[in-house]
């Protein structure tokens, strides 16, 4: 596979400059609010294959959860955000839905049933 932004997709090794090292690009990423996500996606990670294999042996595809001795467990998007070290951003959705959003919600509920 070809390298994408200096990232070798075959083995996950860094092969040169990334978006973060291009002068002037990091401030653009910060202004867009995605700098931390890009930094996390380009970080070098050495997975523990034995631990990953042990964890995957507990996965149950039917329930989409890990079957642990204490009971089924899974992780949320918030867990992934915290594990990746990303700061939460954006406003909470603690407001009433607009009429357009109510209409979309109603259609989604009907389609789901």
TrEMBL record:
Domain of life, source organism: Eukaryota
BP GO terms, sorted: meristem maintenance
One Pfam family this sequence matches: PMD
InterPro entries given in the database record: AminoTfrase-like_pln_mobile (IPR019557), MAIN-like (IPR044824)
Chain ranges of the Aminotransferase-like plant mobile domain: 33-107
Protein name stated in the entry: Aminotransferase-like plant mobile domain-containing protein
The organism of origin for this protein: Aegilops tauschii subsp. strangulata
Lineage, broadest ranks: Eukaryota, Viridiplantae, Streptophyta, Embryophyta, Tracheophyta
């Amino acid at each position: 596979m070809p390298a994408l932004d200096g990232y070798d997709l075959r083995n996950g090794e860094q092969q040169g400059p990334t978006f973060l090292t291009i002068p002037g690009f990091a401030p653009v990423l910060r202004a867009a609010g995605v700098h931390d996500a890009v930094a996390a996606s380009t970080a070098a990670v050495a997975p523990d294959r034995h631990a990953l294999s042990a964890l995957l042996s507990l996965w149950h595809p039917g329930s989409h959860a890990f079957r642990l001795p204490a009971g089924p467990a899974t992780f949320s998007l918030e867990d992934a955000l915290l594990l990746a070290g990303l700061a939460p951003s954006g406003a909470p959705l603690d407001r009433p839905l607009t009429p357009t959003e109510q209409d979309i919600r109603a259609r989604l509920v009907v389609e789901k049933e």
